[in-house]
Amino acid sequence: MTLTDPMKPTQKSKTELPPLLPLLAFGAHPDDIEFGCGAVIASETRAGRPAHFVVCSRGEAGSFGTPKQRMAEARKAASLLGATIEFIELDGDSHLEIRAAHAIKLAAIIRRIRPGTVLAPSLEENQHPDHWRLGKIVRDAARLARYGGLKELKRAPRHVIDQLFYYAVTAEAEPADISPVLIDISAPEILAIWTAAMTAHCSQVSALNYIELQLARAKLRGLRAGTGHAIALFPSDPLVFDSLSKTFHSARKF
Amino acid sequence: MTLTDPMKPTQKSKTELPPLLPLLAFGAHPDDIEFGCGAVIASETRAGRPAHFVVCSRGEAGSFGTPKQRMAEARKAASLLGATIEFIELDGDSHLEIRAAHAIKLAAIIRRIRPGTVLAPSLEENQHPDHWRLGKIVRDAARLARYGGLKELKRAPRHVIDQLFYYAVTAEAEPADISPVLIDISAPEILAIWTAAMTAHCSQVSALNYIELQLARAKLRGLRAGTGHAIALFPSDPLVFDSLSKTFHSARKF
Amino acid sequence: MTLTDPMKPTQKSKTELPPLLPLLAFGAHPDDIEFGCGAVIASETRAGRPAHFVVCSRGEAGSFGTPKQRMAEARKAASLLGATIEFIELDGDSHLEIRAAHAIKLAAIIRRIRPGTVLAPSLEENQHPDHWRLGKIVRDAARLARYGGLKELKRAPRHVIDQLFYYAVTAEAEPADISPVLIDISAPEILAIWTAAMTAHCSQVSALNYIELQLARAKLRGLRAGTGHAIALFPSDPLVFDSLSKTFHSARKF
Amino acid sequence: MTLTDPMKPTQKSKTELPPLLPLLAFGAHPDDIEFGCGAVIASETRAGRPAHFVVCSRGEAGSFGTPKQRMAEARKAASLLGATIEFIELDGDSHLEIRAAHAIKLAAIIRRIRPGTVLAPSLEENQHPDHWRLGKIVRDAARLARYGGLKELKRAPRHVIDQLFYYAVTAEAEPADISPVLIDISAPEILAIWTAAMTAHCSQVSALNYIELQLARAKLRGLRAGTGHAIALFPSDPLVFDSLSKTFHSARKF
Amino acid sequence: MTLTDPMKPTQKSKTELPPLLPLLAFGAHPDDIEFGCGAVIASETRAGRPAHFVVCSRGEAGSFGTPKQRMAEARKAASLLGATIEFIELDGDSHLEIRAAHAIKLAAIIRRIRPGTVLAPSLEENQHPDHWRLGKIVRDAARLARYGGLKELKRAPRHVIDQLFYYAVTAEAEPADISPVLIDISAPEILAIWTAAMTAHCSQVSALNYIELQLARAKLRGLRAGTGHAIALFPSDPLVFDSLSKTFHSARKF
Amino acid sequence: MTLTDPMKPTQKSKTELPPLLPLLAFGAHPDDIEFGCGAVIASETRAGRPAHFVVCSRGEAGSFGTPKQRMAEARKAASLLGATIEFIELDGDSHLEIRAAHAIKLAAIIRRIRPGTVLAPSLEENQHPDHWRLGKIVRDAARLARYGGLKELKRAPRHVIDQLFYYAVTAEAEPADISPVLIDISAPEILAIWTAAMTAHCSQVSALNYIELQLARAKLRGLRAGTGHAIALFPSDPLVFDSLSKTFHSARKF
Hints:
6 copies of one chain form a homohexamer.
Chain A: E1 23-27, H1 32-46, E2 51-55, H2 67-81, E3 84-87, H3 100-113, E4 117-121, H4 129-144, E5 163-167, E6 181-184, H5 188-199, H6 202-205, H7 210-225, E7 230-235, E8 239-241, E9 248-250
Parallel strand pairs in A: 1-2, 1-4, 2-3, 4-5
Antiparallel strand pairs in A: 5-7, 6-7
Helix pairs in contact in A: 1-2, 1-5, 2-5, 3-4
């Protein structure tokens, strides 16, 4: 069930390049996307790319904040990050199970948004049970969106995404079996937007040191990458390049 | 000891972009670079990037071909791929040991060539003993090239490379613990140049099915990546990106 | 629910050896067994071993082909491979979930067929969601078939299989944590039967390069094993041998 | 340097089958082969297969026993196991280094003995430093024995072994990244010969519980495999089979 | 549903130290805790720590013993080990599924017992399907017990456990990706109590060699640790120490 | 060669407990121990435990500082941490090779100091080549110190250490295959001493952000462990405990 209006992408096309396909990020709770990879979202939307968030619970099992508060916080944070947002209901906060019906529901969203990049929480199981379960459901959904015969999905044409990246809400959620790619988020305005988006989750951050934790993670990654701050993303599948271009460089500086 | 003239890079700078830093590839035997990643070299040099090969033996322990023949074959192959080449002597074919002096010697070459990208054989030990040993020596050399106090290296200023990628001469040499990136080599002219460069190693390919093996590997990788042919490279360190750009896409097509 | 007649094994016993216990292969979709390990089936049935396929959906979510077509194709392919076939209904194509009831249902089939060897899709999760889920259900079913107290299974006596092997429908489905064993399928008649069985899935192979992909995989494996073509299987549990016999040899030829 | 006479294989050929190629086992110290896989040797020699031991030190750095004693003990143990034995000198007990010259020396022995199967200590580094170093040297030697151009090896024709298996002298030396195969050694006479061969190393076993440890390991493996006792070996490369024969069965019994 | 009376902890506080928080052990079947880590329980209860068992089926799918017998055996074994016991119903023996409702039910028990240490079966999937599923449910439950907003759990205040350790019912259930800690259980009275507790499961041990298997495992671990017998536990999360104290020592003795 | 006086342990024994055995830390360069685990040293020495540093080069290949400066800095830092220090010469900075003679030299130091705990740089190879090589040499040395027959070591009696822990000089040097233990270093005086000891390496820290990097690492670890700051150490072998004591707790707080 879609609780908010669907995203209406308004991509500003550039002269030479085709418009960037939207970025679609899934979160299990109202603050997961922001804490896990908010700065990456800010960086993409500032570059003119549409971004859309799908939040799969209202955070109703958390220790702090009412569902209403948390949805308002998430809307504010998404707005700060330049993203549209919708809330869907799967099994409820801390009740998520891996069901085929969930994957089909998310596949329908993928077909509607037609993203280039999809972001989902990582699959490491030693974290909040909703996180990795959602990650697995998104992974399956990205496949189902490509298959032609699923009758529940007939309303929208098949869609093949370019890439699925996992983000890690906490450091222990970082996958041990996928080499990360690092996204440089050192620009002061990106850090400021990210911090503001995390701060928007007032009910969560007043009592805990979540923001400090995320900034420490990003700073440590950045120091290792020879830049200020960086966020690690974990590609589900090998990246394909046309050439060994100079658009990336390696992280080893020490 | 340098047996051939050093590379004289003649980069054609483009108007908007800084000239591409050279690509430097190390091989343990005269044909390793060509068989392991020759198509990637061809793709880079055709895009205007200088490439230089350092071959660390004359292949004198192989079952076929004399050292003189093999050096001639390697020179021809490098020329076909648009690369310069030099031969150095470490411990001799099938006699390579991991020595600090070797790493320092290779670090001096890195300081001389000042590459952006370095290619070396992979570190998986269940392959020809010279391959993984050379890979480890190159990895260490790329570090030593950055350190300021090594007296053997004082002649040339410190140099920090952008990236070290490992190539796998055979399929079983592909690292199990690094996520690959795939380089699309489907363009017919790239495949033709690569095949010609492998064929230049007449002494090796008359009796064995090496070329067929490499083309089958590249085709399989390409089919999985949704393209014609592809070669997997294995980054030593995390890749750093300024944005989740559309310049890459993921490999999953099935 | 069994949609076709159960297999009636008609083993031809040899004088010295006890008759070979049947081979039982499970597939999530009508073409999975054929594409993943069809040549192994052909090799076994030609050696006089009964083989039986259990296909757990009618492929109704695929992009091409109707369920009726696909079942007909599977029946033809099984017949070409010398195997009997039955279709069962679990949750439907692309809807499979891991349920205890499914494992019990498959355990009942194992008790009915009483196989020596069981084949199931591999457990790597980054593939079609039905594949690895079926693999896990089969793995559990092989255990439940041994347990004496399950009341749903009381109709048939307990059965202990000899071996469970996983097959990989695609290369990325090959398990990273199990050492493969390679089955030599180089005999021309085996390759011909396999190709015919894959080709029988007309609805799938007209638009895609599946057959080419599988033959390239098998050729690459074979080249590495010093033979023409080979298929990798992944044993669920350690293989036990009476001696270090000469009936196998290792794959390293380069 | 060869301290004892080379093995003179006296294989008893059977009518139908070609004679079994010799088994060649390398040990870093006089008792390593016996403790690590002595029962497997006994099983092979009783089946008519020649076996030869190459012991690469005289155990002179051990806490107990003189070199002379230890060589005598090893000779007695080899004799009990039905194997011939020779001692060679590399760098001395607890002084072994990985050198190309060592690999070439062992490759020459492989060319002389021309074994089907080679056994070497495992490569896990958290064990006696001589063990894994010897394992790596043997692995490289098995490759060099195949290469045609090594001038030090010209005296004997190239030789391609069938299989290289690693044995684990202690449980913590068992490789984590190779699936084991289990050899059934439950026959009472095999266990008796093995125990006698371990007991022959009087200088080592009077003060320590090595024999008890090895029998406990083998019993635990055997219980898990549904047999009495078993020893795990770890193949360096994938095993290749002509068929999914009934000559092996899987280990899972619980 | 709680079938027996809940534990009433009666900790004997010592003068200097705060009372030890209870140990809470979960088992999928009536004998799993005893076979997997019974000696650890005995060691803790003899040191004055309360222990409570939660058994999640009545073993009704086992090959031997009636549910009534098995519950009586489990009660006797728990009593021998100094632990209280309760039986709960999830999905039934061999029918366990991973459901959010199960995790919430176990979280409620954790909030009721308020343990310091929790023990659960390991997560390796190649074992009895109930074992690893229960382990995953307990892992999730230990998280949910900390979260404030779950309405099903409002009856009891939040509880943060100190540690979750996994035990391995069989050797193949030992996790490959967690470094074990070893608990010394060499004291004769501990071994005697453990053996008695395992023997209490008469219906299981008359026909099988389970006790012999577990004692062999513990002896092998002990020999490697330089002590008589030891049991390996696998911490779910890093252990935190105030200092590198002398209260532990490493296992390497060979 | 020992360049400074050996440590003279002056342990203050407590009434009830035996005196703590010394802590012995090895570093490849003058600042490695301080940056990698200085806070752990401070914590131990403040608890009355003797600590001794063995520095295996004078840092002469670094980009900054002369050997004389760096030795003075290291002496000052050791003094601040409450440790004695000696410098030895192996192959020189950035020239270290893995040689049996080095392991024997370090084993002699272990026999002289007779430590309970040994600290060494981690074995991950993608870091400064001297770090992991020294780690491997120390690991081997800890074994050789136990062996009775090494004639170079006859001057001092055999010594069995309690534990070998690896420290990671940088985050990428953290082992992927060993579960860490975390040492709580949150006490303000410990953090102050550690910072002072790192700052003592003036030649290294003026130009680089090493101190900031290490504090960020420790803070991130601490936040995850529910404490202020923590350092991860990686045990070479399983830790053995007499009981599941309350002296440790797990790290999971989120």
